[in-house]
Amino acid sequence: MTTPFEELLGHDFQRPELLREALTHRSALLGHGRRKGSNERLEFVGDRVLGLAMAEWLAERFPHEQEGDLGRRLAYLVSQPVLARVADAVGLGAALSVAPGEAKAGVKLRATVLADALEAALGALYLDGGLAVARAFVRRAWCDAMTVQVDPPKDAKTTLQEWAQKRGKELPEYVVTNRFGPPHAPEFVVTVSVGEACGTGTAGSKRAAEQLAAEALLRDIAP
Fold this sequence. Notes:
The chain is mainly α. The chain folds into two domains: 4-147, Ribonuclease iii, N-terminal Endonuclease Domain, Chain A; 156-221, Double Stranded RNA Binding Domain (2-Layer Sandwich), CATH 3.30.160. The chain contains 13 helices and three strands. It has helices at 4-9, 16-22, 27-30, 40-61, 67-77, 80-89, 92-95, 100-104, 111-129, 131-141, 143-147, 156-166, 206-221; strands at 173-180, 187-194, 197-203. It has a three-stranded antiparallel sheet. A hairpin with a 2-residue loop joins strand 2 (187-194) and strand 3. Helix 4 crosses helix 5, helix 6 (80-89) crosses helix 9 (111-129) and helix 12 packs across helix 13 (206-221). It is flat, with a radius of gyration of 19 Å.
């Protein structure tokens, strides 16, 4: 019998254990003294599948663009914030299995957890149905993120640096101001400042938090 989440993914799994693994956060297994069976291995596979499917799609959609422009588009489409939005749109958080304590702490809402689980689900799709099935899901789930792009995007840190340089200001300075969460799923709070202006971002990696901080500051200084 097809589960509701299988319907959202658009695939009836022949090996349902792959989907269960993709939807199992490592915290759900820690109480049993083991890590095997969490979605980390499938996340590793899904990350590569997503990169291939997206690169193929971008080359097809933008046949006259060169590597640099295509690379910036790719970096945006596979970034943690975009993955988290896609995961939220397909209802992945509700289907994810986590430890009771982590659920109460809101781990299912964390961008890093949603992004990782989405990649794991994509890995499961690929292993169960092949590249065509994975590709079809990517093109459905990322359609809005893809079609909204007109010009190749610049990442927020680059845009903020260019903004500061054009105005003769000091370069942006990024500082980790806080770190919280369990060792297996840390969250970093980063603050970026340019002169008197500052912005803050929180994510599961310093790099992603820096991007979110830059985005926050750009929103504040935009005319």
